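re: ur msg from earlier - yeah i can do the zinc ion complex, just paste it... oh wait u already did. ok heres what im feeding in:
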Amino acid sequence: MTNTPCFAAQSAATPLGPFTIERRDPGPNDVQMDILYCGVCHSDLHLARNEWQNTEYPIVPGHEIIGRVVNVGKQVKSFNAGDLAAVGCMVDSCRTCEDCKDGLEQYCQTGATFTYNSPDQYTGKRTYGGYSTQIVVNKDFVLHVSEKLDPAAAAPLLCAGITTYSPLRHWNVSKGDKVGIVGLGGLGHMGVKIAHAMGANVVLFTTSPGKTADAKRLGADEVIISKNPAEMQKHASSFDFILNTVAAPHNLDAYLELLKRDGTLCLVGLPEHPHPAPDAGNLIFKRRQLVGSLIGGIKETQEMLDFCARHNINSNIEIIPIQKINEAYERMLNKDVKYRFVIDMASLK
Ligand code: NAP
Ligand code: ZN
Ligand code: ZN
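and the outut:
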């Protein structure tokens, strides 16, 4: 066991602060990494504050992890000390159920082991995430990162990147499709970049008029201020696919009405309180689909990292020392993040 400095929340009402956890010694199939950078996802905030009512304390958030391999177990051939490597939202799963066999470990029937706030099979405690200096993970849940990508700006690909890439791929977004992205935060700005790289005609919906110019620079062909009903109406029944990343409850009919026949509205944002139920007529009369999607499988995460390296896609980030994490959470709640905070873990050493 190695004592490992980290930042943890001790209750829903207390800010995150310095703490120490124990990491296991690497076993034959493990990879041990020194964490260089960890992105800050809105899910970290939801969970640190128990907004999904399933948090066990202490909690060490962080699932957008980039690091250097320092040690590998005897059976590990795919990683070597010195490699740039990454860990995303999961560190294990049952590996035998239909979903795991399909490479969709996030839907594992016995529950994937998430990077933090999951039962830890090795320690009997909880898994602890990336707001820490090092981590030990089974090799099958560690990703390769191209040296072409800037390691700090690549960190958010591990959640924001895969959570937007996976549904865009699954619902076959392709060249010329009219695709909406709702919300220009961490997920949304990755959605804009990835959908643009897939050749879609990208429309960004935002509540923040000040983000218009940025959205266009990031790859949006058009920007709609979602609070303006006249602007929304101009696009009625015209979208093939809309990806909704908003972290707060809102009226989904406003987006369902913009879909063509057979169009799809996919939710990835998971607010603390539910959205008001949409009007069934908005689904029925144009055979529209309302769907959801959870992160992405390991194989697909590697595919996304390689896609991003090929297309030179990174996240737009603001690097912070870990001591600023509570302030960063407040700014995230105020939609004041451009467009992902990334913690420089050197600040914890
Ligand atoms: P974020 O950086 O805070 O971005 C959310 C964006 O939504 C904001 O920047 C804002 O964009 C918009 N927004 C926020 N409050 C709003 C409101 N009241 N009304 C309308 N728009 C609002 O968050 P994130 O890290 O991208 O995460 C977004 C959500 O996805 C969170 O709920 C998170 O837990 C969830 N998530 C889900 C998965 C999954 O697997 N499904 C994975 C990761 C995260 P504008 O300023 O442009 O309006
Ligand atoms: Zn996340
Ligand atoms: Zn499984």
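cool cool. The chain has a mean pLDDT of 97. ping me if u need the other ligands too
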